[in-house]
Design brief:
Jelly Rolls, Immunoglobulin-like, TIM Barrel, 16-stranded antiparallel β-sheet, 7-stranded antiparallel β-sheet, 13 helices, disordered N terminus, signal, carbohydrate binding
């Protein structure tokens, strides 16, 4: 029956009676109210909204159903496109009767549907995390700041729709909205991430019709949508009409599992037929391509009530579905009338797999799996939450190219197409309900008030809202084989409302597992909620998850991190530590990195340069929420990879190589795939001599079984090593065609590099040539030899001029202990606790400048600096020694001696130079080609690389440390004519060359800087460091996220050395 609704007050619907919903509805039905709007009543989530059904369409032919072309059906009417639109900044300013037939909207502007109205220039987009975007006083919303968008468009009902049931489908809108058709009230809905359907059959008429939708920016449902993302409003997914038969197969649930042998597929199919009609039949067929492998039929008895039918069957020797083997079958459903005429055809792709916890491990088809996952928000840098099919496909392609096998739909159900693509191309999915009440969770978890007095999961008024959001997610998405986990939501505390939702899922879907984080403050105690199937903490560091895996008190549920390795800005340090632990302990089964894509918006500066905008760029946030906390992605908003994606790709690689006897070419190959052997991969090797490839060859053909290993000979020819030459051997595994969906043949999925000899040391200095000329005045000490001039300013102790053939190439040489703060440095306290190193890097006192001739014809200038403190007791003493040989080469030695015991560890140890802007070219022998750091380097192979200096910095959303390279043997910087310098380390160095003053990265206040601020300027910055601390990133807001101790720099005496030599076009040193 249809729920009566009427209009009262300011056009609000008030519930007079509520129909019982199919299935278990634990909360009591809401009572009528004439005082409070539906959008401020948590017990009212919908009025006259159709029960959720599985994603499908009632086609008129088998051919259309199998093709899945909804737009080709004569029973589909697309309502996307331009709608008339009026924006009201507050509830009181909204139009009250715009939905009436006689109301003239011709003067209104138009807006595209789907779209977020903030992207079209209406209202302010807000970026919030934790803090609600309005004063939190649940369930109420401040009317004065609750903007409203009123939509209207005309349509004509197509011919041939008479006698059919017409549903209005609104893919997603919110936070809440009312619907009218031809001036008649149709319904109301909340939950901005799931579709709503309304039966509008009785409101239609011949000829012109109109539909009106009024969307409220905030509602009581917004208290459950407190996610870490842009708060924007509108109709964000497709709107259309469908005309179903008067009797139709409305819903179905295909439970597709394997039998106990994991060889045969079992189909258990529940079907729901609605409508008043005579007897009919349902036919269900399973097709493998065009071949029918299973058919079942059943009669449908005439009835005025919905009928539930069940069919079952077994397919022997089925091809199972996994993320590695996404084998799909077609389930074709046909409804025939008593005369055998086809009434409806629907088809979906299904996959047979069994998901279970057995032996304390999450298993797919009987085998334990490792989740190499990411969290993914639906985000577009132009349209906010409106996501195109092309964007979805690009995301999945990039995931497959970079060894990602799982995705969490953080933190809400995604567009339906996303799951179909995951089914097709192979991704494990954690489907998450649109529930996050972070602001109220925080209050309870921080002990400000008892949890059961503040968290919404304990409040019986919110029971229905929690349960319905979980139920409706499951009912829509239940037929997708890629979904192996249901998630109850994110960061919403705990309580009986979650327990009820979990129990409902366990009762209604026994084919999947249930996940939820639960308590926020019990991470250290390892207490997963009793109603979930595995432990899913967030941001536990590697040591803590190892504690869970090894401590006898916690022997029980497996662990999968629902979030970890917070990839904010220049981050993802220490990822390998996690996976060393995960591979070492069976019960540690992986996790989902936070997160996939930076949530920034495309804007342009006044001079037209593009940059990534964040919340503060749209004006002050009324709630005072975070201005920049959303650059957390492995990809930039346009899906350009951030440098740390290379690290993920390497660490997530599903094949590993371990040396048995590297020099003899003997290695153990470990297959980390859970289901496929290695017969679909080609292997090869490359031998590098001082970084350059000198030999390469094919590896053996392998068929190493899933989760297996074998020791093999790569047939590397015997190597005759030359003294002083470094040899490196790299092994690679490449895909063949169709080995991995969307991944082309020849793509490298895994590699490893092995040292066959140590890095080279500095070569002996040439003794030929005249003696070094020395000039020592009160202003400067100058050394000259072989066309090289080195002049040290006595007042500053810095290089005033390093020149070759009278061309100035280098200046500076200041001791440097500071780096432009990364997002992690700011959030984890490194920036605050280490700020002393910034002034210590900018000011220094020259204690002494000494000039000395050497017996071999060389000469040296030694500069002693006192840094910080006072003259009698400096904080640091730093000595830089420049020793010039007869051939003009300069050996530079830096010695660091900390004297003040209260110094924090330095952020880097080295010297900073500048070079003229004509120096534009860069080549190096070290890790590359992208940037690398002390704790994020495994994805960068050692080799010889070249590029433009202007291309070495990465445009992070907020300018910060960027462009570094570790394990650098030598570095050459030169002008286009080839003239420049080479820097060679006595040991591998950490270096950075940028086409602008390094201080530009740290010049503007945090929260006001953008990538567009960084442009090539008057000089090149060159940092030659002994080392730089790691990036950290276990989280981005506590000491847990600081770099691990092994990637920090001790406050202890240290010494390093490198050599500067001139280069010119055609010389060996510049090749």
């Amino acid at each position: 029956m249809r729920t009566p609704i009427r209009r009262v007050g300011r056009g609000l619907f008030v519930l007079l009676a509520l129909c019982a919903l199919a299935g278990a509805q634990a909360a009591p039905a809401p009572q009528a109210s004439t005082q409070v709007a539906e959008w401020e009543r948590p017990e009212v989530n919908a009025i006259d909204r159709e029960p959720m059904r599985a994603t499908s369409f009632p086609f008129e032919s088998v051919q259309l159903a199998r093709a899945g072309r909804i737009a080709d059906s004569r029973y589909f009417l697309d309502l996307n496109g331009d709608w008339r639109f009026a924006f009201a900044p507050s509830v009181d300013q909204r139009p009250l009767d715009f939905y009436r037939d006689e109301f003239d909207v011709s003067a209104w502007k138009t807006i595209p549907v789907p779209s977020m109205w903030q992207a079209q220039g209406y209202g302010q987009p807000l970026y919030n995390n934790i803090t609600y975007p309005f004063p939190a006083n649940q369930p109420f919303i401040p009317h004065a700041i609750n903007s409203v968008g009123s939509y209207r468009r005309d349509f004509t009902v197509p011919q041939g729709w008479d006698g059919r049931q017409v549903l209005l489908h609104i893919g997603a809108a919110g936070a809440a909205y009312y619907v009218w058709v031809n001036g008649k009230q149709v319904g109301y809905s909340e939950d901005s991430k799931l579709p709503a359907e309304f039966d509008i059959t009785r409101h239609l008429r011949a000829g012109a019709n109109n539909v009106s939708i009024q969307v409220y920016r905030w509602s009581d449902g917004s208290y459950l949508e407190d996610q870490d993302f842009w708060r924007v409003s509108g109709i964000e997914r497709d709107v259309y009409l469908l005309a179903a038969p008067s009797t139709w197969l409305r819903d179905f649930f295909a439970r597709t599992t394997l039998d106990k042998s994991y060889r045969n597929g079992e189909l258990n199919l529940d079907l729901s037929v609605t409508g008043n009609a005579a007897a009919s039949r349902v036919k269900a067929s399973v097709l493998d391509g065009d071949r029918v492998v299973l058919t079942r039929e059943t009669a449908v008895e005439p009835s005025s009530k919905p009928r539930t039918l069940s069919l079952a069957g077994t397919i022997e020797g089925v091809r199972p579905w996994t993320a590695e083997t996404p084998n799909l079958y077609t389930l074709l459903l046909e409804l025939h009338d008593a005369g055998g005429r086809l009434v409806q055809a629907s088809a979906v792709k299904i996959g047979f797999r069994t998901i279970e916890v057995s032996g304390g491990l999450v298993r797919v088809n009987g085998k334990p799996i490792k989740i190499r996952g990411v969290n993914r928000h639906e985000h577009d840098p132009v349209t906010f939450h409106v996501i195109s099919e092309a964007s979805m496909r690009r995301d999945i392609e990039l995931m497959k190219l970079n060894n990602v096998n799982a995705v969490r739909t953080s933190h809400y159900p995604n567009a339906e197409l996303w799951y179909a693509l995951a089914d097709e191309y192979g991704l494990y999915v954690m489907d998450e309900a649109n529930i996050e009440s972070h602001g109220y969770m925080q209050k309870g978890d921080e002990g400000l008030r008892p949890r059961d007095q503040v968290q919404l999961g304990y409040d019986p008024r919110w029971e229905r809202a929690h349960l319905e959001r979980v139920q409706r997610m499951m009912e829509r998405d239940k037929n997708h084989p890629s979904i192996i986990f249901w998630s109850l939501g994110n960061e919403a505390g705990t309580g009986p409302n979650f327990a009820n939702a979990a129990n409902w899922l366990h009762t209604h879907d026994t084919t999947r597992l249930v996940s939820y984080l639960g308590h926020g403050t019990l991470y250290a105690q390892h207490l997963p909620e009793p109603y979930v199937d595995f432990y899913a903490p967030m941001y536990d560091p590697a040591a803590r998850i190892v504690d869970y895996a090894t401590h006898p008190d916690f022997a029980g549920k497996p662990l999968i991190l629902c979030e970890y390795a917070h990839a904010m800005g220049n981050s993802l340090g220490g990822l390998k530590l996690y996976w060393d632990a995960i591979y070492a302990h069976d019960r540690l089964q992986g996790g989902f990195i936070w997160d996939w894509v930076d949530q920034s918006m495309l804007k342009r500066s006044e001079d037209g340069r593009a940059y990534w905008a964040y919340g503060a760029d749209y004006g002050p946030n009324p709630s005072g929420a975070e201005a920049i906390e959303f650059g957390d992605g492995l990809l930039q908003p346009d899906r350009t990879p951030n440098p740390h994606l290379h690290e993920l790709s390497k660490v997530y690689g599903p094949i590993q190589f371990e040396a048995v006897d590297a020099a003899a070419g003997r290695f153990t190959v470990r297959n980390r795939h859970n289901f496929i052997d290695l017969s679909g991969f080609d292997f090869d090797w490359q031998l590098r001599e001082n970084g350059r490839i000198v030999r390469e060859g094919k590896g053996p053909a392998l068929a190493t079984p899933a989760d297996g290993s074998q020791t093999v000979d790569f047939a590397v020819p015997p190597l005759t090593k030359r003294p002083g030459v470094e040899y490196l051997l790299t092994l690679r595994a490449r895909t063949r065609a169709d080995t991995v969906p969307l991944v082309p043949a020849g793509h490298v999925v895994a590699w490893e590099q092995f040292a066959l000899s140590p890095p080279p040391s500095l070569p002996a200095i040439a003794r030929s040539g005249g003696e070094v000329a020395v000039s020592d005045t009160a202003q400067a000490a100058t050394l000259r030899a072989a066309g090289v001039e080195l002049r040290i300013d006595r007042a500053t102790g810095l290089i005033q001029r390093y020149a070759y053939n009278d061309q100035t190439l280098l200046q500076g040489g200041a001791p440097n202990f500071w780096r432009a703060p990364t997002d992690n440095d700011i959030g984890t306290g490194v920036y605050a606790s280490h700020q002393i190193w910034k002034p210590l890097s900018q000011t220094r006192r020259v204690r002494a400048v000494q000039v000395q001739r050497e017996g071999d014809g060389g000469a040296r200038v030694s500069v002693a600096f006192d840094i910080g403190g006072d003259t009698a007791a400096p904080d640091v003493q730093y000595t830089v020694d420049y020793a010039m040989a007869r051939d003009g080469s300069v050996d530079v030695t830096g010695e660091f001696k900390p004297l003040y015991a209260g110094l924090p560890d330095p952020l880097r140890l080295g010297l900073m130079f500048t070079m003229p802007s004509r120096i534009t070219e860069l080549s190096w022998y070290g890790r590359g080609p992208h940037e690398s750091y002390a704790d994020r380097y495994t994805g960068a192979e050692i080799g010889v690389y070249a590029g433009k200096i202007a291309e070495q910095n990465h445009d992070y959303i907020r300018p910060q440390e960027t462009g570094n390279k570790v394990d650098v043997r030598w570095l050459t910087l030169n002008a286009e004519d080839g003239v420049g310098i080479r820097v060679t380390g006595a040991k591998p160095l950490s270096v950075n060359a940028l086409a602008f003053p390094y201080d530009d990265l740290d010049r503007k206040p945090i929260g006001q800087a953008h990538s567009s601020d960084i442009v090539a300027r008057e000089h090149v910055s060159l940092m030659i460091d002994e080392r730089q601390i790691g990036l950290g990133g276990d989280d981005s807001w506590s000491k847990v996220g600081q770099p691990h101790s092994q990637y920090r720099i001790p406050v202890a005496p240290s010494r390093y050395q490198f050599r500067i030599t001139p280069v010119q076009a055609g010389t060996e040193a510049n090749r």
